[in-house]
Design goal:
about 0% helix
């Protein structure tokens, strides 16, 4: 079946060894302490897109990843340093102030900006105001509509590029006052990566076309899954492993 690329959107997934991790309610993804991961980026459209990534409520870099039409990449490292992405956990007290302090921990947001297609006789202007609101959406200020340098890592990998940005984040109030401990986690810099980048040029929209968000959490916060109810013989307690059993294999009791 044919799908128009204009009706599709860029996507992002959290992966390990290029295998997607399970996503739970509210886009939650659970990781072990010191677990390395990648970000799978995919562009199903016929246009170039710039992907900007935020960790823990803060832009990872003033640079971004450029995805060519139909390109899928697995980003495993920071753009401004060759460190891999790693999830690290630690414990804090379950108080209002501590919960407020960790409210942005584990936040992962990917915003996609479409390549600007110049219109004959139309000029975008020399500057755009720079502001990012609390949920990391907003505009990016640049000096003129073009002349921005982007980079791309070799062997068919994506581009990165720079835009000047500033941010203004407000704290979020939390209501819990329990004195127990709670485990939290943040995206930090891990071991060195061999992923490399090269340079290119491009001009992209000041406004994101779509975004994808995840909340990375410790495995200790993972909900318990019950895949199947276990049944046992009422006479001897032997577990009934097959629903087709008519008699207990332990004592012969009729089921």
């Amino acid at each position: 079946m044919y799908y128009s690329s204009e009706s599709l959107k860029c996507s992002a997934h959290v992966t390990t060894d290029r295998s997607r991790l399970k996503v739970y309610n509210s886009n939650q993804v659970f990781l072990k302490d010191k677990q390395k991961f990648e970000i799978e980026l995919y562009n199903p459209t016929s246009f170039k897109y710039l992907a900007k990534i935020s960790f823990n409520g803060v832009l990872m870099s003033q640079s971004g990843i450029v995805l060519k039409p139909g390109e899928r990449v697995y980003l495993q490292r920071y753009l401004d340093s060759n460190n891999k992405f790693v999830f690290e956990t630690y414990e804090v007290e379950k108080s209002n102030s501590s919960l407020n302090a960790i409210s942005k921990n584990g936040g992962l947001k990917i915003e996609f900006y479409k390549e600007h297609i110049p219109i004959s006789g139309y000029y975008m202007g020399s500057s755009v105001s720079t502001y990012i609101n609390e949920d990391c959406t907003g505009t990016y200020g640049v000096s003129g509509p073009s002349g921005i340098t982007y980079t791309n890592y070799s062997s068919g990998s994506p581009y990165i590029g720079g835009l000047n940005t500033s941010s203004n984040f407000n704290s979020i109030n939390c209501s819990s006052t329990l004195d127990t401990k709670i485990e939290t986690g943040r995206v930090e810099k891990g071991e060195k990566s061999k992923q490399e980048f090269t340079s290119t040029t491009g001009d992209f929209s000041y406004f994101s076309e779509n975004s994808v968000e995840y909340k990375l959490l410790p495995e200790s916060a993972k909900p318990v899954e019950i895949s199947k109810i276990r049944n046992y013989c009422t006479e001897c307690g032997t577990r009934m492993k097959k629903e087709t059993w008519k008699f207990c294999p332990g004592c012969g009791n009729k089921l």
